[in-house]
Specification:
The complex is a heterotetramer, with 2 copies of chain A (137 residues) and 2 copies of chain B (83 residues). Chain A has helices at 11-14, 51-68, 99-116; strands spanning 2-5, 25-32, 36-37, 40-49, 71-79, 81-84, 88-96, 119-125, 130-132. By secondary structure, chain A is an alpha+beta fold. Chain A has one domain (2-10, 20-129): Molybdopterin biosynthesis MoaE subunit (Aldehyde Oxidoreductase, domain 3, Alpha-Beta Complex), CATH 3.90.1170. In chain A, strand 8 (119-125) and strand 9 (130-132) form a beta hairpin. The longest helix of chain A has 18 residues, at 51-68. The relative contact order of chain A is 0.28. Chain B is of the alpha+beta class and 83 residues long. Chain B is built from 2 helices and 5 strands; from the N terminus they run βαβαβββ. In chain B, strands 2-1-5-3-4 form a 5-stranded mixed sheet, with helices on one face. In chain B, strand 3 and strand 4 form a beta hairpin. Classes of the chains: A alpha+beta (137), B alpha+beta (83). At the A-C interface, strand 2 and helix 3 of A face strand 2 and helix 3 of C. Strand 2 (25-32) of chain A pairs antiparallel with strand 2 of chain C.
């Protein structure tokens, strides 16, 4: 399941989900708002999202992960709106029988989300200025 | 007199800042493509000249040469920077 | 910090730790007791541990991870005693500025823990039999 | 009459099951090595003949040829299977 939310992401609440008894490996990745980027002091972040396509593309990425790796379940939630330092911007969780699959699928998902899901990040600096980040592609 | 159709254009990130709009309806000539539309918007709002943008029509990726239909939703997608 | 515990591991409690404001990436791996291995139905697991050396070797692995990768913090806790299906046997968490480091360090830690930390696993099967697993090395 | 020292041997996993002991104190000849001790234990308890074991003396990895000292703690470490 791929979700977009304006609410604060609390991994502990997500983690209430119990895996199936076949699951031997759980991999989690969290992207967190940090206080600096490319040498500038970041005060907060704003994420804008093209939600309809983001959900479509995000769900496609999770489906690809299930096809490429032997995993039981893949989940991703991405935050939008204004985020403070230390808040979770994106959370990925994979359940698998074995760790090699859970690690690889988790990495695949976050890498593809960052490449393909239409979400944009504006950095608001300590100086008061702000700027949309330049994407790679 | 030209025959026209109406489409909606949605703006995100830098493009939203430049147009100062989340979206707008525009009247365009039939058989227009995203390429044609971008040229008009570029003149109107001073959007970037050689943009590295992808296209979505009705929430699916599409090409710069797609022929737009009446009521279409068109989005120019800047390089993404989520995560 | 590397810990050994006989108590049930509750990741939600561990996760109360808040990362520093420089942290942009958190990677977690959890090894979970699953209900089958090598074609046999597993009922529960028993982990035995040579605790003094396990703590030494585990702490050394975390230190190596900090030296090899650009990470902020590495944490690992390993359970001992009798474990039920679905319980967490081992939990690894890494904080880093960037995701490449957090993923690689997390993987390094769990791989080395499984190779080097003196802990042994006995599988207790549905059939009533039990067996110490054969290690690779 | 030989001079002897006393060491403690700790057992884990399969070795604990075979000896039915967590640990025991044994008297050994001075200058004995883990290799010598294992030979005795192998005869006494039927431990594996060609074991793939590592050695720890006083909670640090050591070699099969280390010379044991009085009061040493000796552990034969089977291939680990944690995680």
């Amino acid at each position: 399941m791929f979700l977009i939310t304006e609410e604060i992401i609390l991994p502990n609440n997500i983690e209430l989900k119990f895996p199936s008894s076949k699951v031997g490996a759980k991999s989690i990745f969290e992207g967190i708002v940090r206080d600096n980027n490319l040498g500038k002091s970041v005060k907060k972040l704003e994420y804008q999202c093209y939600e309809e396509l983001a959900i479509k593309e995000g769900s496609m990425i999770l489906k690809e992960a299930v096809q490429k790796y032997k995993i039981d379940d893949a989940f991703c939630i991405h935050r939008t709106g204004k985020l403070e330092i230390g808040e979770t911007a994106v959370f990925v969780r994979v359940f698998a029988a074995h760790r090699d699959d859970s690690f690889q699928a988790c990495r695949y998902i976050i890498d593809e989300v960052k490449k393909r899901v239409p979400i944009w990040k504006k950095e608001i600096y300590e100086s008061g200025e702000s700027d949309w980040l330049k994407g790679a592609g | 007199m030209h025959q026209t159709i109406e489409i909606t254009v949605h703006y995100f990130a830098k493009l939203r800042d430049l147009t100062n709009k989340e979206k707008e309806s525009i009247e365009i000539a039939i058989e227009s493509t995203p390429k044609d539309i971008y040229k008009q918007l570029n003149e109107m709002y001073g959007l970037p000249d050689n943009p590295n943008l992808k296209i979505a029509i009705n929430d699916s990726f599409a090409s710069w040469e797609s022929e737009l239909q009446d009521k279409d939703k068109l989005v120019f997608i800047p390089p993404v920077t989520g995560g």
